[in-house]
Write a structure and sequence with these properties.
Elements (H helix, E strand, L loop, with lengths): L2 H6 L2 H9 L8 H24 L13 H10 L8
Helix pairs in contact: 2-3, 3-4
């Protein structure tokens, strides 16, 4: 990941911090899938930054869409609102 991106935003670090949270037992499987989706989106972003950095600014590129959709449905107001 380019230094300017890593210095301003760390989705991988954010994902790891979320995994450390205590979660309701009834939601554990859903949230585990959410964390996995966040990590997969981060992998996709990092790969795209290596392959074609300019394309990450395209409206068509948004690997976090599924994770954000889940966040909104689950009730995460800040995470899912961006």
């Amino acid at each position: 990941m380019p230094a300017f991106v890593a210095a301003s935003w760390s989705p991988r670090e954010q994902s790891e911090e979320l995994r450390d949270l205590d979660v309701p037992e009834a939601d554990a499987d859903d949230l585990e899938q959410f964390w996995d989706d966040l990590e997969a989106a981060t992998d996709e972003l990092e790969q795209q930054l290596e392959d074609d950095p300019e394309s990450v600014f395209s409206e068509d590129f948004y690997p976090f869409a599924d994770a954000n959709e889940f966040a909104v449905e689950y009730g995460m107001e800040e995470c899912g609102s961006s």
